[in-house]
Amino acid sequence: MPDRLPTALWVDGVLATLTARGIFYYFAQKGDPSTGLLLLKLTDTRGKVRLLTQQRDFLEDKLVWVDALDIENPQEKDADAFIQKAIQRDPDLWALEIEDATLVNPFTV
Questions:
Q1: Residue-wise pLDDT tens digits, 62-88
Q2: Cβ atoms 29, 95 nearer than 8 A
Q3: Exposure winner among 6, 13, 68, 78, fewest CB in 10 A?
Q4: Which residues, 6+ apart, have CB-to-CB distance to 25 below 8 Å?
């Protein structure tokens, strides 16, 4: 997320491009519209899953994306359990699920 752009505005912009491309998405939770971090679950139609989260890179003072699970081929149930625990810990968190065969993070494109 750009450091000065509210989360809701940034997410809405990316979702508009997904909608235009016919890519489905679902919010497990909409967090704080100004400052909430994003947890992103990417799935394809073959059962592959990627779960990405944002972290601050303090050396470069910017947000970066990292794998949330330390599992080589995570199962969807593992990703869903992680999302539920993260939502319970952080009510400001945005949790977004995207179905896309490429499993590419649209927030980095």
A1: 889 999 998 888 999 999 999 999 999
A2: yes
A3: 13
A4: 15, 18, 96, 97, 98, 99
- Local confidence band at 3 (pLDDT 50, 70, 90 cut-offs): low
Other beta carbons within 10 angstroms of residue 3's beta carbon come to 8
Is the CA virtual torsion 69, 73, 75, 76 positive or negative? positive
Banded model confidence at residue 2, pLDDT cuts 50, 70, 90: very low
pLDDT in tens, 26-63: 999 999 999 899 999 999 989 899 999 998 888 887 88
